[in-house]
Design goal:
heterodimer; A: 397 residues; alpha/beta; Peroxisomal Thiolase, Chain A, domain 1; nine-stranded mixed sheet; two-stranded antiparallel sheet; B: 154 residues; mainly beta; four-stranded antiparallel sheet; 10 strands; globular
Chain lengths: 397, 154
């Protein structure tokens, strides 16, 4: 496992706990007839309110987004009043929220800011997204620009190598839809039976319609403080520590998400989730067995099974069995996607990771109501997407 | 004469769908192969003729044609018309897409031109360059097809 120790610039430092979450806010995920500015500012204002700090006290702000226009961060946050702090838009596909959070944590750890705002906001195009956002013209012309096709190819190979079944994949969707019923921030809050999922139309074999997430709108925000500032504000005890945030891009050939034209048949590089999680575990000083609850990328239901293996919840090839054994159910040994996951919430790309973090914060504060994992003290959030972008955040109470 | 036959018979300009993807004379489709770049430093062979190795970043690349036979490593079926400027059959017909493992040690993403029920991991495939007749020109594109179709013996 020396490959992550060698390349981890923070491995020798123990100050990561210095960045703490003192406020969260959200605009629900769904489809809304309003502008992104309105959704974004609602989430940001809610996070500031919960933190008990004023916008003018914030020292740096970052917006995670993929499909919004240039200077969206300024367009949203200037509604809170004029300021002269750094505000930057950050894009790293599905991991945009993690990349933005990392910038805020670095700003705090460097001492440049002692309060920072991270906002994720998205208003996604209706129907199919313009494939030129991700693919070259020739791939689009030949029909190799369909995201679920890549997921289906991975799932099919996993089934071939490890005996994973379509039923196990469908069970992930059943679990996540069941969890979402209790989440007011989710878009779909409806249970589906195993039969309903397995009878939903194939999108890209073996992936079915009720097993994939929808692109939608929404926003989520957090206010971060240095440990010192949190103590001064008297909120230290209620704050949630960012024990680790890691963001990486896949190595050669280890990125068969989207887009891709070929991969090596001889080289076995660890995938982006594996590398990113290893870095996060190392920085937080914990292992998968120490984590009480997980929110992971479930753009499609198979992706969650693969995440179990990449994040170390089980051995390679055992993901399907983990589902059968109920280990990742809300009241299982390792609960995954208590929020309902992206399958139920939808995926407003820039906001998705921050939405996961809001769920973990609720769990660690024990305010998750019927979704609560009793006694949760450490939680993990994981996102993975186009270009091999992956981010993993570990939070501690 | 139908439009199709007029197009095929005319002396139309011909181009490739992506520069560097193919090797061989595009005037003679039977001699066209996928192009590859073998890195003499790290040993990886990558798709297309390139300047730098996508694995190690060095410029020690030897271009050469890739083998025209492969094995299906995994696949899916695209059940709905792809978004944007998709140039496949209209009206849309569901089609297979998969990763084809080539003897040079790489897997290439390709449309698999066969009946959907034939698709299975491990099936033997053959490179199939063909012409797409666009309005103003013919474009060399590719797929893979099962060995043994078209009356030939694999």
């Amino acid at each position: 496992m020396s490959w992550f120790l060698r390349s981890s610039p923070w491995a020798s430092e123990a100050k990561l706990d210095d960045a703490v979450i003192i406020g969260t806010g959200a605009h629900p995920f769904g489809r809304f007839d309003k502008g992104y500015e309105e959704m974004g500012v609602a989430a940001a204002a809610a996070a500031l309110r919960e933190a008990g700090v004023q916008w003018r006290e914030i020292g740096a702000a970052f917006l995670a987004r993929m499909y919004l226009p240039a200077t969206s961060g300024v367009r949203i946050l200037s509604r809170l009043g004029s300021t002269d702090i750094p505000i930057a838009d950050i894009e790293a596909a599905c991991a945009s929220g993690g990349a933005a959070l990392r910038q805020a944590v670095l700003a705090i750890r460097s001492g440049e800011a002692d309060l920072a705002l991270v906002l994720g906001c998205e208003k996604m195009p209706r129907g199919f997204m313009d494939p030129r956002m991700l693919y070259s013209d020739w791939q689009i012309e030949l029909g190799m620009s369909v995201n679920p096709a890549y997921w289906g190819i991975r799932a099919r190979r996993h089934m071939h190598e490890y005996g994973t079944t379509e039923e196990q994949i469908a069970k992930v969707a059943v679990k996540n839809h069941r969890n979402s019923v209790h989440n007011p921030l989710a878009m779909y809050r409806k249970e589906f039976s195993l039969e309903q999922v397995l009878n939903s139309p194939l999108v890209c074999d073996p992936i079915r319609l009720f097993e994939i997430c929808a692109a939608n709108d929404g926003a989520a925000a957090i206010v971060l403080a240095s440990g010192k500032r949190a103590r001064e504000l008297g909120v230290e005890k209620d704050s949630i520590k960012v024990a680790a945030i890691a963001h990486t891009v896949a190595r050669y050939s280890a990125n068969f998400r989207t887009p891709a034209d070929s991969m090596s048949a001889t080289l076995v590089n660890p995938g982006p989730s594996e590398i990113t999680a290893a870095r996060a575990y190392e920085r937080a000083g914990v292992g998968p067995g120490d984590i009480d609850c997980f929110e992971v990328q479930d753009t499609d239901a198979f992706c969650e099974i693969e995440a179990y293996e990449d994040l170390g919840l089980c051995a390679r090839g055992e993901g399907g069995r983990l589902v059968d054994d109920g280990v990742t159910e809300l009241h299982g040994r390792m609960p995954v996607n208590m929020s309902g996951g992206l399958i139920s919430k939808g995926e407003p790309v820039g906001a998705s990771h921050l939405g996961q973090i809001l769920e973990i914060v609720s769990q660690l504060r024990e305010t998750a109501g019927q979704r609560q994992v009793p006694g949760a003290k450490i939680g993990m959030a994981h996102v993975l997407g186009a270009g091999g972008h992956c981010a993993v955040t570990i939070l501690k109470r | 004469m139908s439009d199709d036959r007029l197009r095929a018979s005319a002396n139309r300009p011909r181009k490739v769908v992506r520069a560097g993807l193919f090797m061989g004379p595009i005037g003679d489709l039977a001699a066209v192969r996928l192009g590859g770049s073998q890195c003499t430093s790290c040993g990886e062979t990558s798709l297309g003729v390139r300047e730098l190795c996508p694995n190690c970043g060095r410029d020690t690349l030897a271009p050469g044609p890739l083998g025209d036979r492969g094995v299906l490593w995994s696949f899916t079926v695209v059940r709905h018309r792809p978004p944007g400027d998709y140039r496949g059959p209209d009206p849309f017909v569901p089609f297979g897409v998969g990763l084809v493992e080539l003897p040079e040690g790489l897997r290439v993403l390709s449309v698999i031109d066969c009946r959907l029920e034939e698709l299975r991991i491990g099936m033997a495939l053959r490179f199939k360059p063909y012409l797409r007749h666009d309005d103003a020109e013919d474009v060399v594109v590719f797929a893979f097809e099962p060995v043994g179709v078209g009356g030939e013996v694999g």
